[in-house]
Amino acid sequence: MLIAELEDLRADPNQPASGVVIEAEMDKTKGPMATVLVQSGTLKLGDTVVAGNTWGRVKAMFNDVGKRIKKAEPSTPVALLGMESVPQVGDKIIAVATEKQARDMVNENSQSTRKTNAVSLTNVYDQVSQGNIKELNIILKTDVQGSLEPIKDSLEKLSTDKIKININRSGAGNVTESDVMLAMASGGLIIGFSTGIETNAQRLADAEDIDIRHYDIIYKLIEDVDKALQGLLEPTIKEVIDGRAEVRAVFESTKKLSIAGCMVLEGKLVKNSQVRLLRGGEVIVDAPSNSLRRFKEDVKEVVAGYECGVGLKDFNEFQKSDILEFYHKEKSR
């Protein structure tokens, strides 16, 4: 109460409760337990609350001498049970009206945390300098098994007293969805040497903001990681897939140009975007789109689930089942 009095806090006890987590632990018998300082409103038994990336319904509350209580008013520290998992010390806690609202808030908080904490070669120096990370977790994929050890050894030698390089997984082959999921779980990034990436893996990496770097020269790979740890690496340009479509039919226009009749499979197709045409997994052409139509009308974009006609600059060799990837480039984080 002394702190509240000194700061002249006049919290309204009638509004929904909010406060901050000051202690948190996993009790062996009671489960997740959080000690909260109520800053405004009144926290009551049965309230649904959100704290950072977790939520729960208050099942029990205890005051500073361990006595069960039914409500906690402003400036009151209280230990509570009922959280789904252990929150972080410093998390803001707030009472909400419904479980759905709680779940939605946790989902937003979780996505925001992943974006904020996502590690890339571009921001790793800042993350280390700010004390956010002490280890750089890397998933390493190469074209052949023989390339793994020299790259792995060289990367691990870059460890310093401020940051340790961990190769969480290494193997030969394309970057897979499993690799991306491991990077998400470990807060790491992925490095590929002379290898590709599966479609589902790229989609997940884009959604979760996972940094995937591709190299064809070992020296350049090691140099970039070394520069990144010193804060000297310049931002790179990366591709972002906007949408994919499958060619279902091929038509000849009045100007003797081929138009691909397509079904948009995912994302959206944007007129004048760069387009990569894949056939049997191989890139046949990479060219800008110069025509995008719905029926006979020119349109700016077409979203998933709709049919459209696509034309590419200086290309007329469409075939059924070709895949068109519409993409743009942007600076990496």
TrEMBL record:
SUPFAM superfamilies per the UniProt record, alphabetical: Initiation factor IF2/eIF5b, domain 3, Translation proteins
Record protein name field: Translation initiation factor IF-2
Domain Translation initiation factor IF- residues, every copy: 112-225
Organism taxonomic ancestry: Bacteria, Bacillati, Chloroflexota, Dehalococcoidia, Dehalococcoidales
Coiled coil region boundaries: none
Membrane-crossing segments per the record: none
GO cellular component: cytosol
Similarity comment: Belongs to the TRAFAC class translation factor GTPase superfamily. Classic translation factor GTPase family. IF-2 subfamily.
Keywords for the protein's UniProt record, in alphabetical order: GTP-binding, Initiation factor, Nucleotide-binding, Protein biosynthesis
Annotated GO MF terms: GTP binding; translation initiation factor activity
Domain annotation Elongation factor G-like: ranges: 16-95
Keyword Nucleotide-binding attached: yes
Database matches in InterPro entries: EF-G-like_DII, IF2_II, TIF_IF2, TIF_IF2_dom3, TIF_IF2_dom3_sf, Transl_B-barrel_sf
Pfam entry (one): IF-2
